[in-house]
């Protein structure tokens, strides 16, 4: 039987409607949720992502501004700007778009953001709280994935979840969140040998590899849940995930498409985190 397609776009839309309602209530109480995004340099992909974030905040009634800094900006200047934003009571969330130019130490920048405003969930304090199961800002893509699974009533507890990829942004944290939900978690990465031994044994397979069609029908278990985090642009301009969707969909029980799967959930969770920051829940 063909898989159920998880509609990330529709779910994101529904969640955003609820958030719009919550934002208007906060405004009525005199709280104006505000996100400040910093972008350094003019990487086209980063610009597209930042524009998407700006548009989504405005649609939800959240105010936001984007600070554009030249690629040549010094690390010191960027850190000073973050210090200023940390002290600004009208700013609830701070997001520095990654990647940063090579002369800037990414970890130093992430750690300069106040954990109370860390809507990306990348600060070591946020990561430590996530690992110990405390309330905190969760990184947006992993949080979006867990929200999707829960919204579709897909059981996580006791299941074997296999995560392909070990980035700080997606792979590592999504594995931790699945573990927090009582899955048995296996991480696979570029140095894993016998990859299909693991993927073929996954009840839930998360692919965050960044290579088109690396997962096909023969690599997955009958009835598996497939979450495709890959966003790959082909030569003809079309977007595709890490999974060969048509063949995998014949064998999986649930599968996310690309686009309209995980992507719309990521920005939605950023909105969620910004509202949470405005309410001061993380402190
Ligand atoms: N670059 C790619 N994804 C992300 C993200 O989720 N947050 C930030 N700050 N930068 C990114």
From TrEMBL:
Keywords: Amino-acid biosynthesis, Histidine biosynthesis, Hydrolase, Methionine biosynthesis, Multifunctional enzyme, NADP, One-carbon metabolism, Oxidoreductase, Purine biosynthesis. It comes from the Bacteria. Gene3D superfamilies: Leucine Dehydrogenase, chain A, domain 1, NAD(P)-binding Rossmann-like Domain. Residues 6-120 form the Tetrahydrofolate dehydrogenase/cyclohydrolase catalytic domain. NADP(+) binds at residues 165-167, 231. GO terms for molecular function: methenyltetrahydrofolate cyclohydrolase activity; methylenetetrahydrofolate dehydrogenase (NADP+) activity. Its EC number is 1.5.1.5, 3.5.4.9. The keyword Amino-acid biosynthesis applies. Residues 139-279 form the Tetrahydrofolate dehydrogenase/cyclohydrolase NAD(P)-binding domain. Pathway: One-carbon metabolism; tetrahydrofolate interconversion. InterPro entries: Aminoacid_DH-like_N_sf, NAD(P)-bd_dom_sf, THF_DH/CycHdrlase, THF_DH/CycHdrlase_cat_dom, THF_DH/CycHdrlase_CS, THF_DH/CycHdrlase_NAD-bd_dom. PROSITE patterns: THF_DHG_CYH_1, THF_DHG_CYH_2. It catalyses: (6R)-5,10-methenyltetrahydrofolate + H2O = (6R)-10-formyltetrahydrofolate + H(+); (6R)-5,10-methylene-5,6,7,8-tetrahydrofolate + NADP(+) = (6R)-5,10-methenyltetrahydrofolate + NADPH. Homodimer. HAMAP family: THF_DHG_CYH. Belongs to the tetrahydrofolate dehydrogenase/cyclohydrolase family. Catalyzes the oxidation of 5,10-methylenetetrahydrofolate to 5,10-methenyltetrahydrofolate and then the hydrolysis of 5,10-methenyltetrahydrofolate to 10-formyltetrahydrofolate. This is Bifunctional protein FolD.
